[in-house]
Structure formats: C-alpha cells, structure tokens
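Today's session is about reading a structure prediction critically. Students often jump straight to the picture, but the first step is always the sequence itself: look for stretches that repeat, for charged clusters, for runs of hydrophobic residues. Only then move on to the predicted structure, which in these notes is written as discrete structure tokens rather than atom positions. Here is the chain we will use throughout the hour.
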Amino acid sequence: PLTPAILNDAFEELEQAQAAADRETGNADKASAIYNIAINATDLMTLLNQEIQLHGKEQQELLDEAVAVAAELGIEITWSEDHQRYFYTGNAYRQYLELVPDGLNAANSRYHLIETGFYRGDAGNREELDTRAAMESDFLRRYPEYGNAGRVAMFLAIDYRDLWRLCHATKDRECADRYAQRNREHLEAIADRYADGKTGEMARTLLQRFEAEIADSQ
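Below is the predicted structure for this chain, in token form.
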C-alpha cells in the first residue's frame, strides 16, 4: 500500500529535479532537467493510480494530501471520475517542448500530452476535437515507429468518428462526408499496418461499427 514514506521519497525526487532545472541556464540542459521533472510527476501519478487499482479509496486522505503537496510543487495532478484514475496535466512536458521541440524526448512528451488530452478532452467540442486530431495526425507522421503509435492511431480514429458525429448532428453534410472518408481511410491503413495484431483487429472492428452507424443514420 501507499505510505507517507513512499510519497516523501517521490516528493524528494521531484524537489531535486526542480532544483536541477532551476540551476541550468543552457536550453538543452534546462530542457533535460525539465523533462526529468515531467517523468517524476508521471511516476507520482502512477503511484497514486496503483493505489487506487489495488485498494480503491481506502487511503483517500493520503491521496488528497499527495495531490495537494504536488500542487504546492507546481505539479497539477487531477482526478477523473469518468475514468476513475489520476492524470498529470503535463506542464513540464509542454515546457520541454517549448525549449526543444525536436529534442530526444519530444516523442515521449508529445505522447503524454496527446494521451491526457484524449482522455480528459471534450468529445462534444468540435474545435477541440479538430485541434486534437491534428496533433495526433502530426504525431503519427513524425513518429510512425514510436512504441505507442498504435494507441495514438486509435485515438485519432475515435476523434474522427466523434467529429463525424458532430458534423452529422448539425446537418453539415460536407463536413460529415469529409470526416467519414478520413476515418475510413485511416482505419483501413491501421488494419493494414497492424494486420496481425490486436490493433489491426480493433481497427477492423471499429470500421465495421462506423459503417453500420453511418448506415443507420441515413
């Protein structure tokens, strides 16, 4: 179980990472130190989620205290009722990318922000969905061999589907047709790329469901 001692160790590492970032002046070194903050913040988030998975909210007071102390250190970790888990909002990842957009840890930083944006975003906001889909598409173009590229591809498929739904609901036929075609092509490409794995199977299933949903909406 999570203990105050475990949390104290995590906070100590965070404080050390922040002190290192404050000392650095050169862009590359400062970016590396800031990335270390992001990793430590993500590790803390993981600790809290592991506690939830193993023991539920038995230690809610300790969990709340951890979130509060993290906030004092400039690390925003929030609870999602919908997903029953904590999310690190990723400010240090953003700071890293501002300093070195194409740095060694750019793919990991972008992935974290995309994942958090997907789970915490508003599927009913067309502008937000457009922005998110553009980020996901750009990520797949830049990092096709990234370890979690398949997950990002799934995020994009779901966002394309939700954009189609919004366009269809507002009777914007041109927009609906555009996103329907994008999603078809995208899911077909995923099914081909990951033909022998679970991601490919999921893409084929999503495509069948999507075509059925379009047919039902006519």
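Discussion point for the tutorial: The CA atoms of residues 1 and 54 lie 8 Å apart.
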